[in-house]
Amino acid sequence: MAAGKDVRVRVILECTSCAQNGANKKSPGVSRYITEKNRHNTPGRLELRKFCPYCYKHTIHGEIKK
Description:
Belongs to the bacterial ribosomal protein bL33 family. It comes from Kadsura coccinea. By secondary structure, this protein is mostly beta strands. It has 1 helix and 4 strands. The protein has a single domain, classed as CATH 2.20.28.120. The chain is 8% helix and 44% strand. It is elongated, with a radius of gyration of 14 Å. 9% of the residues are buried.
Protein backbone atom coordinates (compact mmCIF):
# COMPACT_ATOMS: atom_id res chain seq x y z
CA MET A 1 0.00 0.00 0.00
CA ALA A 2 2.43 2.72 1.14
CA ALA A 3 5.90 3.21 -0.29
CA GLY A 4 9.06 2.75 1.80
CA LYS A 5 9.56 6.49 2.46
CA ASP A 6 7.20 7.35 5.31
CA VAL A 7 7.20 10.88 6.70
CA ARG A 8 7.16 9.80 10.36
CA VAL A 9 9.92 7.36 11.27
CA ARG A 10 10.73 5.53 14.50
CA VAL A 11 14.08 6.49 16.06
CA ILE A 12 16.06 5.21 19.03
CA LEU A 13 17.55 7.72 21.48
CA GLU A 14 20.57 6.63 23.52
CA CYS A 15 22.16 8.33 26.53
CA THR A 16 25.34 10.08 25.39
CA SER A 17 27.03 10.11 28.81
CA CYS A 18 26.53 6.35 29.33
CA ALA A 19 27.77 5.64 25.79
CA GLN A 20 30.87 7.83 26.29
CA ASN A 21 31.79 6.09 29.52
CA GLY A 22 31.28 2.70 27.91
CA ALA A 23 28.70 1.74 30.55
CA ASN A 24 31.13 2.50 33.36
CA LYS A 25 31.40 0.43 36.50
CA LYS A 26 28.72 2.41 38.37
CA SER A 27 26.03 2.06 35.69
CA PRO A 28 24.88 -1.45 34.69
CA GLY A 29 23.71 -0.48 31.19
CA VAL A 30 22.80 2.19 28.64
CA SER A 31 19.51 4.09 28.70
CA ARG A 32 17.48 4.01 25.46
CA TYR A 33 14.17 5.55 24.46
CA ILE A 34 12.07 4.87 21.35
CA THR A 35 10.18 7.79 19.76
CA GLU A 36 9.03 9.09 16.40
CA LYS A 37 10.18 12.10 14.41
CA ASN A 38 8.92 13.88 11.31
CA ARG A 39 11.51 13.47 8.57
CA HIS A 40 10.53 16.74 6.84
CA ASN A 41 10.68 18.96 9.97
CA THR A 42 13.84 17.45 11.50
CA PRO A 43 16.09 16.06 8.74
CA GLY A 44 19.14 15.99 11.06
CA ARG A 45 19.87 13.87 14.11
CA LEU A 46 17.45 14.31 17.02
CA GLU A 47 18.76 15.15 20.52
CA LEU A 48 16.51 15.44 23.58
CA ARG A 49 17.12 15.83 27.30
CA LYS A 50 15.65 12.74 28.94
CA PHE A 51 16.07 11.04 32.33
CA CYS A 52 18.71 8.32 32.45
CA PRO A 53 17.97 5.76 35.19
CA TYR A 54 21.59 4.55 35.11
CA CYS A 55 23.16 8.02 35.58
CA TYR A 56 20.34 9.11 37.95
CA LYS A 57 19.99 12.50 36.19
CA HIS A 58 18.69 14.22 33.06
CA THR A 59 21.18 13.86 30.18
CA ILE A 60 21.19 14.39 26.44
CA HIS A 61 19.92 11.40 24.50
CA GLY A 62 20.95 11.34 20.84
CA GLU A 63 19.56 9.48 17.87
CA ILE A 64 21.43 6.30 16.87
CA LYS A 65 21.23 4.04 13.84
CA LYS A 66 19.09 0.93 14.02
